Amino acid sequence: MSISTSSWLRWVILLFLGLVIGHTVVTISPVPNWLFPLPTAAWLGLAQWRRWGIKQQPPGEPPRKRFIWALLPLVLWGIYVYLVDNYGQADIGALFFHLQAGIAQHGGGERNLIAVIYTSVMLLVLVAYTWLIRQDLRWRRWDPWLAAILLIGNPVFYTIGQRSAAVVATPGAWLEQRYVAPTILKAPQRPPNLLVLYLESLERTYGDSEKFGNAYADIKALEPKAVVFDNVQQMDNTGWTMAGMIASQCGTPLIPAGLLHDSQFEPLHQVAPGVDCLGDLLKQQGYRLTFMGGASKAFAGKGLFYEGHDFDQVFGRDELAARLDDPEYLNSWGLYDDSLYEFVSDEIRRQDASPGPWAMVALNLSAHAPEGYPSQSCEPFKDDYEDADILYAVKCSGWLTRRLLERLQAEGLLDNTLVVVASDHLTMRVSAWEDLLADKRTNTLLMMGNGLTPRVIHKPATTMDTFPTILEAMGFTIDWHRAGLGVSLLSTEPTLMQRHGIDELNRYMREETALQERIWLGETPPNQAEENDAELEQQAPVATPEQP
């Protein structure tokens, strides 16, 4: 018995939609990937039982075209699934910020191909759903209701709607009321140098040797000589590179500029111009400031941020690649970490030869999702890991960082220097994703040198607490042990995390507009100063900070 063309087409379309449904279910839910066929089979079973897709037209009614309501909600779901599949979460704040700050010269070319594939599949979904609507009268009737369900149930739409409601409602100012403008009250007689090493996506969760072997072992090897902060969690709007650096250097989450930006169709010209950050304070104390990163400084406003906050030198891919002995030794983002760390070492030697304190901030690339960019010098470790295993990249990142610090220490370049080793944010979706999600996730943060007594501090914190902690670890006395929304973890003062918990902080974050105005416009809402003073009086310090 032959199968008609229309029957064959019907089942091809239904199978395609079933495969898309199966992929969606395992991507956005805890359902393991190996159960992928079950949602597909369930869809096909329902289709056979209900005879979906068989042409139905009421007698005497000529076929007519109707507006298909669910097409836009389906597109939004396609965006959501793409974000979750590639990044582990749909961070709308990150999406908005990168659109405004600029995504030119980004790396990760493999994700471009994935985006093309997703776009093509999404177009086919729209065609397939349109065919189903045209064929089946029942689906035509269900379409408006399905559109409403898809729209209301989409986290992307929910987040946009919630943020829009916050803009038009009474201005949210819960975070703003707790913001303390960073102020140095007293400096040490001999201010120390500062070296901050951001390790891309290298979260402390990798330290679980039962799950991840010795991938994190080189960072753990640094801990006996360091103050280790083992409970640094991730608040909303601090979960990508620029947001993580701003949180840890300015003490604020990076709320995208949104409508506060002077032109919605051009890149930003400033990043967080309304708040003082680490660079602003150290420049006032006479520091020479340098940033070095393997990726382009043009990406996501990185150069704008550092140049706008008083850094004297800002080096990215374009500036450093010209110095390479082998100009072809680059990855899709930029320099490999072994090359970057050589330039960091050279710059520290140059700075240390001049009088006065210096500060170096460096951002590496090795463990960047999804597969990482291990350097050639890490190849001796390669046989211990499978291809495309992020743990190889994590191992490489930690080993190169440890080797850099040991080399600088041996040369005496870290004398009178505070060293900070930190992940910029928790990693996005990688090969070890399920294992990372199985337990509580925390960021890497450890500090050593400048007379600090090695110990482990378990205080619940966010990356915003890094900013005042660095200042007090350097020996500076700061107002109320606070800077921005952060609280020094070297003091006994409770952090916002301790007082309120991550869920409440994130809830207030979604409603906040007053802090957004401060970050981008430098404006404090009327009567805000008085409210801040009252808040501080109610939470007056109960103890002096612990001495380094």
Automatic annotation (TrEMBL):
Region of interest (Disordered), residue spans: 521-548
Residue ranges of the TM segments: 7-28, 66-83, 113-132
Domain Sulfatase N-terminal positions: 192-475
Matches recorded under InterPro entries: Alkaline_phosphatase_core_sf, OpgB/LTA_synthase_biosynth, Sulfatase_N
One term under GO cellular component: plasma membrane
PANTHER family: LIPOTEICHOIC ACID SYNTHASE, PHOSPHOGLYCEROL TRANSFERASE I
Name under which the protein is recorded: Sulfatase-like hydrolase/transferase
